[in-house]
Amino acid sequence: MITTDRLLLRPHTIEDMDAHYALSAEPEVYRFLAGRPSTQEETWLRLLRFVGHWSSFDYGLFAVVDRSTGKLIGDTGLAHFCRELGPDFDPYPETAWIFSASVHGKGMAFEAASAAHDWFETKTGKREAVAIINPDNAASLRLAGKLGYEAFGSATYKEHDVTTLRRTP
């Protein structure tokens, strides 16, 4: 677990299903992901993937909890998603984040993602990582820039255009 001034970051559990399903139904959350809310099955499989990362690699995406409310407000971390985007992307850990619209613009995404990156680098010794972001998602592109990511190309992932980014040592 990681504690910041306002947040608690912890591995996901199966008990996060309802909160994660509600998060995935927020238009500001799914708008740049699939363009539609996740089904319960998709949410369940994503949650199992998050839990499985921790079991297999001893790291993955963290559930991000607002310490003042105890509410799950998003997730962030680094993982291996096997997206088949090529040798410039696939071998590297990939960062990801989603956050509830209720905390957009409050610096919580940067607080959580910075803490997750610091933890990951200390644990693994790795700084280099990659990300994919919808090119229209200006807020996520700004956050990636603050975390040290730079665009290096573009790709199509699940029929959506994405910008590929890299954070180098």
Report Rg.
15 Å
Label the structural class: alpha+beta
Major sheet size, sense and barrel closure: 5 strands, antiparallel
Helix content: 25-40%
Question: How many DSSP E strands?
Answer: 8
Describe the structure.
The chain is of the alpha+beta class. The chain has one domain (2-126): Aminopeptidase (3-Layer(aba) Sandwich), CATH 3.40.630. Helices cover 33% and strands 28% of the residues. It has five helices and eight strands. The chain has a five-stranded antiparallel beta sheet with strand order 1-2-3-4-5, with helices on both faces. A three-stranded antiparallel beta sheet has the order 6-8-7, with helices on one face. The two termini are 25 Å apart.
